[in-house]
Amino acid sequence: MRTFRSAAGAAACVLLGAALLGGCGTDGGGATDGKPPAGTASPGTVSASGASPSVTAATPSPSSSPSPSSTPPAPSPSAPAEPTRADQRLVTVTRSGGFTGRQTSVLVKGDGSWTRLDGAAKVVGSGKLSPAKLDALRAALKEARFPKLPRVALSEKPVYDGFTYAFVHGGYEVATDDVAMPAGLRKVLGALPSLDAS
């Protein structure tokens, strides 16, 4: 009788131990709390042993945004910049009067190409300045200092068979004549193609 009770007690201990081990969460290999066992991947993820790593979205670094100090300064309105494109007009000079009362204009572009027009705006000549002559014209225009010139520089006593001129450069226009022409504009006139039709 004592042997039966000992065997029954041992069996009850074994069953109790098995029940305890079965309900011990991840240590017993079961998943009773809804969490996956250690070492297994959750749905929608790649485990450490997977073939491809996860991709992290790139965020812009603060240094990639432009700083206010890198903004170029605005050009000064008092000194217009010289034309930089070849198709922009560098200077235009129109001469009127003389003994026959004719009008002739010469237009020079930034690349040195020029066109001569008569009073009816008909082309009566064209060509291109050499690099050396174009440099000389640019130097004369700079030396003339158009922003500082008077807009009108005419002699008090007009010469009836003389010439009057209109110079246009860098957004400035100056009207003058043979007598009162500033020295700087005389240099510009000398560096231009001839105003006389060939």
Layout of helices and strands, plus pairs?
Layout (H helix, E strand, L loop, with lengths): L1 H21 L66 E9 L4 E8 L3 E5 L5 E6 L2 H14 L7 E2 L9 E7 L2 E6 L5 H9 L7
Keywords:
198 residues; alpha+beta; 22% helix
Mean pLDDT: 72
Task: Outline the low-pLDDT stretches.
Answer: 1-69, 75-84
Total helical segments: 3
What percent of residues adopt helix (DSSP H or I)?
10-25%
- Radius of gyration (Å): 47 Å
SSE pattern: HEEEEHEEEH
Question: What does the model show?
Answer:
- The chain has a domain at 89-191.
- It has three helices and seven strands, in the order H-E-E-E-E-H-E-E-E-H.
- It has helices at residues 2-22, 131-144, 183-191; strands at residues 89-97, 102-109, 113-117, 123-128, 152-153, 163-169, 172-177.
- A hairpin with a 2-residue loop joins strand 6 (163-169) and strand 7.
- Helix 2 runs antiparallel to helix 3 (183-191).
- It is globular.
Please outline what is shown here.
The chain contains three helices and seven strands.
